[in-house]
Amino acid sequence: MRNWLPIWSGTVSATVAFFFFVAVDSQADDLTAARQSLEKTRLELQQQGFKTAVTDFDFSTSPELRASEAILKAASRDGLDGPAPEHPNLMEAINSNTVIVVWQQDHLKRETPAWPSTNYDLTWDDFRDQTGDEEAELAAARVAILSGPIQFDLQAADGNSMLLPHLALLKRLTLTFNDCAMLALHAGDRAAALTNLLAATHLVTAWNPEPVTVSDLTRFANAQLVFGATWQLLQTNAWTDDQLAHLQAEWAAADFLGRLPEIQAFQRASDLQAMELDPATAQKPGPGMFDDEARLLLFYRDREIEYHNAVQATNWAQMRQMPGVTNEVFFQPKSRFRGPFAMSRIHRQTLMQFQGQGIGILGHAAQAEAERRLIMAAIALERYRIKHGEYPDNLAALAPEFVKAVPLDFMSGQPLHYHPSPGGRFFLYSVGLDCADNGDTIVKTPSMEERAANRAGFPRPAPEPDIVWPLAASPAQTIASHEEQSRIDAELKTKREAGFEAEAKQQAQEAEEARKAAMKKLLAEKSSLGPEPVYQGTPLSLWVIKAGQREWFDGPPADAIAAIRAIGPKAVPFLLEWMPHPGMERPVEGFPGWDGLEVAWFALGSEGKAAIPTLAHIIGRSWKNADDYSVWTENDKAISYLGPDAIMPMLTVVTNLHGQHELWEFVHNFGNLGTNGAPAIPALIGWANDPDSWMRDGVVSALGEIGQRPDLAVPVISKALNDSDWMVRRDAGTALGAFAKDSKDVLPVLAKIVKDPPDWQARSGALSGLGRIQDQPEAVIPLIVPYLDDDNSVVARSAAYALRDLGSEAGYKALVQATNNPNIGDIIYEVQEKMRHPPGK
């Protein structure tokens, strides 16, 4: 045995080594082959004329265009004081084909009620004050807009990270010029009305958008806004043929389809760059990554060809039969990506879900093209009426004097539907995306209740009605419509509230039965607790349960907080029994939930310090499983509310468990001490340079919540603004806002990060920090508002939360009036409820 064992061992070792080197060589061969296949695919596409790198694109502009861009930025709401104005609905339908002439009304209708009243009326004087029609910046912008093409200087090399701040600017200016046109019409100033409409129109027709999906979607959305303004303008016969011919020529020059294939080309180059920079694969690329890159190149080649073929179609009925038109198709990699490529894919799909509303970008382009043709046909009809004193019997009479040929519906390829109507008006409509004649049916404006219901759920696919150039509602029709809508809104609200009330009663009855059973069992097992404390006839457990419930969006009920504080230290033994602890790791049915218990400890504060020894013992134990960890975290939160006596036990735990990643949560909870946590600041700063980024993040968050000792805290937080971890940078911006009263440098620093951040996460944190500067709303609101329409939904939501957190009427109004971004609909709804139910009302 001893003679052959070494020989056998050596043979095995040699065999293992052989297969190891063979495997390594095989992997290297696979990697080389995959890389060569990718380069071959890239080269073939380049030879065929397809762009494959972001360096193939140049979005820079001339000095003249950059000068115009600066003028537009100065005129946007970014540079004007106060919140953006409310914008009237210029296509408020009262039936299937009749719309209210807004500028003829005695007052405007708010989309949301005034704060703190519930009045929906907006006077023309208030509307004029909000719009700022006399601002010099707007006058300069009108001149710049009408002087030539519109384009914005952008960094194509940034690919998917390219910033697009001008999109919100363009929407805001379009709405503003529409508003100015309505004000001028109401005042009888026809020349000013036409100038403002031409400015809004030129923002759409003369803008040469960068080849990015969201940019074209913004253009199409703005075109729809101007469609409504143009209809409003043509409800008066005050125009000359030359004026209308000028307006008609603006729309004739617009091209909504030709450059759409370039979107796929730039997306290909941007996604390829993002894949190559993905941190999960960049340092150690494998064959799978190269295979995915080659697949991506071919995927977008096919999409670009599909788009190119689609835009050559003469109508939507022909186009929608082509592949990849009616639904957006997204590239699906086989490898796992976690970095910029994965983020861009998620963002793109979310954008199409919300902003696309179930319609692909080609469908939106087709709608814009159909609207463009309707506008030109309507203007041609007005020009015909000016010359002949009446509208023609058919559209053929317009050609060739007022149009080159009979106006065709882009949707069907057939002539637009038209016939004169009694009263000297006319019907004109396109059949819409379904290519079916629905009898000139348009979508009626949803009620407030319907809008709220839509915000609460997922976006629904948009209906496919006809695209109508509607009739004007008579004064009597307008009054009757408003009265009927008010009645419907009231009925829906009553029905909804009754349903909620019945459901709440049933749930309350079931919960009360469970509570009584649980309390009876607890007091039988632990009679030493004595009777449950009662305040104003209601037992402690019910007050704690109520404390875990929110009334609207104003936080825990004030009466529950007051009751728990009135009961005081007598509540401690019961709260400890209801808390998760060894042997009772999960909530017991009938006992107050952990949310209510956390609020109860917060309410007691230092009055609950008798619980500190028990809670300290629990959090000092090690944990072995998920249940243990849940117990630890809930008790950790509880002790952090109990005043300065909790500091030493908490510091002891951090010291004993130092080095464990989970401690970041514990460090973060020091912020729950509020100003009582000031003695802990030197110790917290000691962990500011911890190698664990989660610990560093916990430190800056806690320092911001404590909000004391700016001499120690501000330098640490300021340094964290440049941390290597995006999460720390983000939360440092939020924390810094707590010290604006203590340092005049805080606001300028946050403003700089908002405007020129190292990344979008830092911008979102800085926006949150601005939301904490409640004593300077006039300074921070203009910094926040531009980002409500940001392409990045996280940034948009951060801006919305910041305006909400300011707690001022100006902040609330800026939020509910300045945007229609569906990504923040729930926050807008929350603030609307605050405005309808202000504290103390």
Short description:
By secondary structure, the protein is mainly α. It is built from 34 helices and ten strands.
What does this structure look like?
- The structure is a single chain.
- The chain has 34 helices and 10 strands.
- It has 841 residues and is mostly helical.
- Among the domains are: 44-58 and 212-406, no CATH class; 475-525; 528-657, no CATH class.
- It is globular and about 100 Å long.
Task: Furnish the topology, listing elements before pairings.
Elements: H1 5-47, H2 63-75, E1 93-95, E2 98-99, E3 108-109, E4 121-122, H3 124-131, H4 136-146, H5 166-187, H6 190-205, H7 213-233, H8 241-252, H9 261-277, H10 279-282, H11 287-311, H12 316-319, H13 340-354, H14 361-388, E5 417-421, E6 425-430, H15 448-456, E7 467-469, E8 471-472, H16 475-525, E9 534-535, E10 538-539, H17 540-547, H18 558-567, H19 572-578, H20 594-604, H21 612-619, H22 626-639, H23 647-656, H24 663-668, H25 681-686, H26 693-706, H27 710-720, H28 726-736, H29 746-755, H30 760-770, H31 777-784, H32 793-806, H33 809-817, H34 825-836
Parallel strand pairs: 2-8
Antiparallel strand pairs: 1-2, 3-4, 5-6, 6-7, 9-10
Helix pairs in contact: 1-11, 2-4, 3-5, 4-6, 5-6, 5-7, 6-7, 6-8, 7-14, 8-14, 9-11, 9-13, 17-18, 17-20, 18-20, 20-22, 21-22, 26-27, 26-28, 27-28, 28-30, 29-30, 30-32, 32-33, 33-34
